[in-house]
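hey m, so remember when u said the tokens were messed up on ur end? i reran from scratch. heres the input so u can diff it against urs
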Amino acid sequence: MKALPKKNPLFHGASVTRITIVAVIAAAVVPSIWAVRASELLASTSAKSSGRQIEQVLRNAVEQKKVPGVVAMVSRGDQVIYEGASGKRDGAGNTPMTVDSIFRIASMTKPITSVAVMQLVESGRVKLDEPAATYLPELAEVQVLDDLDANTGKAKLRSPKTRPTVRQLLTHTSGFVYEFFDPQMHAYVATGAVPSSSQGSDGFLKAPLLFDPGSRWEYGISTDWLGKLVERVAGQSLEDYFRQHIFEPLGMKDTFFNAPAAALERLVSLHQRSSDGTLLEVPRKPVTSAKFFSGGGGLYSTAGDYLKFTRMLLGGGRLGKARVLQSPTVGEMARNQIGALTLVQLRSLAPQRFRDPLRIPGSLDKFGLGFGINTKPVDAGRSAGSLAWAGAFNTFFWIDPSRRTCAVMMMQTLPFSDDAAFEVFAQFERAVYETLAEAPPISTK
């Protein structure tokens, strides 16, 4: 992809922005100071106005103190049509946010792990409907937590009716859950039977199932097991596998489990919402090496890198000359894989980390192989059949195949599902689709 200009005279002020609008209208005037050929960058007055509206969403978010800083990017067809940053990367250091700022992306790691699994499926080394224990023998002994005595802490366990399959791990119908969303598992972890997933080790993988595989959908540690599966089958660490098979082919040079010191200089500070609604910057601590490579939530990345990942999926597994997946595989990942089951409303047992009730934008009701799916269009937003997910620090993405559009927005605040962050993202989505409404059709040539 051709590098974008470092500065764009369409925008000025507190935000650091680069924007290109893929539109060709004869009346457009391109300032001569750009020294850019008209064939490379043409913009209409109306398109510029819509671009400014996206920009204004970011500015307002910071000026109204909804978030301390934000980065957003949008792609349409094979073109990046918007890149913008607003606010501060580090309030204590008074460092401006930039589009190459590095964020903790938490559960936005999961779609990347899912792509890695599907690469192994394509190569014939993994089968979707095979019991996961075929590749991870320790899962052959996994039990279902049937009951827990609140007084004694004694658990009643039983064998599942069937063993969880790879497909069920990809769709969160395996029976594995998160203890901070499920009261019964929360109580089980409190007994000391297994460590909390918040400790940073992989001890939580010893947790039992909470229901028989395939009987319902519930978000959980399934994708961490898939990370282990990739390592076992590929014979290399998840970090090495991601770098070799996904990050390097796509040019994702700023995505890591262990970010190098030079990259950590661009790490965005975390802010916590206090009870009075103000945001408090969390003091920075030295970043330590990952205890294990969490396929469910361990990565650092930039909005630009993650946009490349979503563009690859929008392109049917291909970005530029790099092919990461075959198009039919991506089509299968984007299809409802849970039948009549629906996504359940998650309740938070960790209010500092997740606002209760938990919400993910887009009215997601179905699940594919690694992505939530909305079967109904979002009002003034994405089309039905779009793919999406999010990360605990209020990072978001969606992929809209019908409109050939994908978008990423990254903030770094807690709790997740915070009203202010949720509102900023909703306004961003509306502004994106207002931009698309004014743009000419994408050429099919």
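this time it looks ok to me. Residues 1-50 have pLDDT under 50 and may be disordered. if urs says something different then somethings off w ur setup not the seq
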